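Input structure tokens:
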């Protein structure tokens, strides 16, 4: 079953090659780096990620 990246919404058909964050989001490899600073679980600017959830 394909899922979508939480940031860019790109379909991730094979999640074994994509990043999952400790907050539980599946992310495209490129989006994973962008997500780190505002991750709602442990990011420096986590309040931004919390607003997105």
């Amino acid at each position: 079953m394909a899922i979508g990246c939480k940031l860019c919404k790109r379909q991730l058909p094979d999640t074994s090659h994509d990043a999952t964050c400790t907050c539980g989001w599946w992310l495209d490899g490129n989006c994973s780096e962008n997500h780190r600073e505002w991750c709602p679980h442990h990011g420096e600017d986590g309040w931004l990620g919390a607003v997105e959830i």
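The mean pLDDT is 76. The chain has one domain: 1-44.
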